[in-house]
Amino acid sequence: MAPSGRISQSVFDGSRLRVILLLDLFEGAQEQFLDAYELMRKQVASVPGHISDQLCQSIENPSQWLITSEWESAPPFLAWVNSEEHVETVRPMHSCVRDTRSMRYSIVRETGPRQQAGPDAVSAVEQVAARVGDGVARHALTFTVKPGSESKVAELLAGYESPQAQVDENTRLRRTSLFMHGNRVVRAVEVEGDLLAALRHVARQPEVRAVEEAINPYLEQDRDLTDPESARVFFTRAALPAVHHVVSGRPAPDGLRRHALFYPAKEGRGTDLAKLLAQQDEAAADDPDSPVWGSTVFQRDDIVVRLIDITGDLDVDPVASLGLKGPRKAAVLARLLDGPAIGVEGALDNDRNLNRLLSHADMLPVTDRSSADS
Length: 374
Fold this sequence. Notes:
Strand content: 25-35%
Helix content: 25-40%
Distance between the termini: 27 Å
Order of helices and strands: EEHEEHHEEHEEEHHHEEHEEHHHHE
Shape: globular
């Protein structure tokens, strides 16, 4: 159980995952949709971590449909939903669907056959503790720009006027933090309320549309945000989900600064790396002497980004800044990192390599904007 006041949200708690996809179909597209669903169902059945799925139709409005699926845990679902395989699997559905909404939930309590063994039977799912949140949804996008265009892209992304923070009576943009690492852009957002509504709100703002158009020529992968299919594929490929977030229960200290650290994992080790950093930040949240007050870990495939709110400069305590405090943690991180990609080879057991890693991992801040009352 998290200490009183501490915020902790994670996909690494071991709970099963329920995914709910709401769909509104075009009239006359039902048979085409059913054919597309059958193809998707057969392909998803072989995805590691997938347990089951159901297709449901509204009894009140025949154009409204619901797909639910159950997964062993969140990480295998996130790996699949952000993959190129998923992009191709769901493509036949797009021409049938007017609108969609996806929601993901950890299974915390359950009734049914698992509990029928008797009043004293305890299901494994009942051991999952309810997480303590702060009413904020976090998400990030990442994409690459053509080498040589980095400074121009940074200028464009830093120069636009912030969109209106209040989306509706229930939703508000809280903070947008944008960083670059070489030619990779990472934009992280914090939203109170409905994340999807906020993202759609931002996409409609003229100042945002203008800057998105301005950076299009510099992107390594072409996109056309005026074309729904092109936009859908871009946002699927660019998604960088928040897999862990923790904030210390102690009051926020003065002088907090936000940094982003880029950790490229060895092939196939991205989830392990994100989990290690999540464990380290949980420990830091309970350490009154840690300079790390809050952290969000984002991960997609072998791309891991750790956003930290920290007191002082990163190089004052490189071990804490990198999330390496504790015996053998540096050795574990070294085994998970793609060292050559970040400019570090060999063990992380000396100041020279630690500072080199910190220097390479520290992302260039482009803009960090908060709403007035955040």
